[in-house]
């Protein structure tokens, strides 16, 4: 993992929420990098991963001086549901900034301090793959075309003015996160990310985009199912014409 500039590795009053499902190989590496950021705390939200990620997270937490905590979920698996549980728990802490990021090493921890700094004058900072051209490493063209297409689709249907509305790398100012009424978000899968941003858009909160370099996962597998894919086609329309 690289550092892209000379920012100090500091993120005080910040909690990173990391959902995991079968990330046994990636999580220890991610945590090692996150722990190098001064002041940063981490909440792992594991959905009873069959590969033992939850237990690994517990072991990492036990030797972390209280910087790492773990939320174990056993029912109602799904990225959206895991995020709701994790982010609500994050709001119970004193953290002023709450980040969300993937566990599979696609999101570089060294981007966090810069994102937190930008959250000083934005309500949410989105780590964007598409803000200065395209910054994605090791994606097959098919995947890139799909992601760019999904973003166009979301922008067209919902009017959210963000280049990368499906990015899972974000940093929230706590007051903004508290305003979007997490408990009533409905998406179960990846659409959750779009649904969250739609609430930000509707409430006229300030969105900033910070360029990130996204690196394709090396370990483990993608969890994109047909149901989750269909949900992501339908959700923008539901947001536009439904209650939100
Ligand atoms: N707790 C929980 N975490 C999940 C679930 N599904 C995915 N995740 C985690 O959410 C993050 C994003 O999922 P990924 O599978 O990496 O999704 P992606 O980045 O679109 O796809 P690939 O990286 O190409 O596999 C990762 O940290 C996953 O481990 C789930 O049902 N529950
Ligand atoms: Mg991933």
Report on this structure.
The chain is α/β, with parallel strands linked by helices. It is about 40% helix and about 15% strand. The protein has eight helices and nine strands. The protein has helices spanning about 25-35, 55-60, 80-90, 110-120, 140-160, 175-180, 190-200, 225-240; strands at about 15-20, 40-45, 70, 95-100, 125-130, 135, 170-175, 205-210, 215. It has a seven-stranded mixed β-sheet, with helices on both faces. Helix 5 (about 140-160) runs parallel beside helix 8 and helix 7 packs parallel to helix 8. The longest helix is centred in the middle third of the chain and has 18 residues, at about 140-160. The structure holds guanosine-5'-triphosphate (GTP) and magnesium ion. The site of guanosine-5'-triphosphate (GTP) has 19 residues, from strand 1, strand 2 and helix 3. The site of magnesium ion (MG) has 4 residues, from loops.
